[in-house]
């Protein structure tokens, strides 16, 4: 079992969209996938139709041995979710003293090939738990002016975690998201990011595509909502790249 954290300290860069749709395509490709919703906003949970969950990840952090009881199936074969509930917002206080809580939880998770974690938009205790527990990180990056600075800051954080809490942590890759190829800025940012980070940057670029933003309100991943859209094609390709890279870690 490999655990991939979808992490970026910025909000609105496509973490949740990437976590949901990547998880869906990895499951469609035959992997047994668990999506763990570590963001108290619960967007991954509601985006997969589990808005009504009253218990989930928060409870499982307290009693890892019972994690299967709080794990929910979805309409997608092979894709389960450990949902976020409003209680998770309060977990930050408890987890501040306990960076290994998620690591202990994952030790009790059985029966999956891949665990994907949707992280919240901060570097608070919930995200630190993700960084401590993950084998590798996928960093979604929106192609905008400050993207490189944000990414440099993220890489410094990764190095700090590698030097302490989680020496085996790797960066699986950086995925450009919400890409609008009609603008010069987006193309310039892509060029700069590829110059600086080389092969770390996935070849698959996720375009800005309205279907990707509509799918969550229908509680479906993009492969079920609009399989012929440009967004679907891009996440399918990204999932293939992710699988190739995961096999090497
Ligand atoms: P994060 O989890 O990093 O905060 P989200 O995945 O929730 O980011 O994305 C922020 C917003 O942008 C959401 O409304 C989402 O539907 C939308 N969005 C994300 N990716 C795309 C895309 N490729 N094309 C169009 N809209 C997108
Ligand atoms: Mg999110």
TrEMBL record:
Pfam families (alphabetical): AAA_31
Listed InterPro entries: AAA_dom, DNA_Partitioning_ATPase, P-loop_NTPase
All copies of the AAA domain together span: 1-171
The record's listing under SUPFAM superfamilies reads: P-loop containing nucleoside triphosphate hydrolases
**Taxonomic placement:** Bacteria, Thermotogati, Deinococcota, Deinococci, Deinococcales
Taxonomically, which superkingdom? Answer: Bacteria
Question: Which PANTHER family does the record match to this protein?
Answer: P-LOOP CONTAINING NUCLEOSIDE TRIPHOSPHATE HYDROLASE, PARA FAMILY PROTEIN CT_582
User: What's this protein's name?
Assistant: Chromosome partitioning protein
Q: Which organism is it from?
A: Deinococcus puniceus
């Amino acid at each position: 079992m490999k655990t991939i954290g979808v992490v970026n300290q910025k909000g609105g860069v496509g973490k949740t969209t990437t976590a949901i749709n990547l998880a869906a395509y990895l499951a469609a490709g035959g992997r047994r996938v668990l999506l763990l919703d570590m963001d108290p906003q619960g967007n991954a949970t509601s985006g997969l139709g589990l808005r009504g969950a009253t218990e989930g990840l928060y409870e499982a952090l307290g009693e890892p041995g019972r994690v299967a009881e709080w794990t929910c199936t979805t309409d997608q074969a092979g894709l389960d979710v450990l949902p976020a509930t409003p209680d998770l917002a309060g977990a930050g206080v408890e987890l501040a003293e306990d960076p290994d809580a998620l690591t202990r939880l994952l030790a009790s998770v059985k029966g999956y090939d891949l665990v994907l974690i949707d992280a919240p938009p901060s570097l608070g205790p919930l995200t630190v738990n993700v960084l401590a527990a993950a084998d590798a990180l996928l960093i979604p990056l929106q192609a905008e002016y400050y993207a490189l600075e944000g990414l440099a800051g993220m890489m410094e954080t990764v190095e700090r975690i590698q030097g302490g809490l989680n020496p085996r942590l790797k960066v699986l890759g950086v995925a450009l998201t919400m890409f609008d190829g009609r603008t010069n800025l987006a193309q310039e940012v892509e060029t700069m990011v590829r110059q600086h980070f080389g092969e770390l940057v996935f070849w698959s670029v996720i375009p800005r595509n309205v279907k990707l933003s509509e799918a969550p309100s229908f509680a479906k991943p993009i492969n079920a909502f609009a399989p012929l859209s440009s967004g679907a094609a891009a996440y399918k390709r990204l999932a293939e790249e992710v699988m190739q890279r995961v096999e090497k870690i």
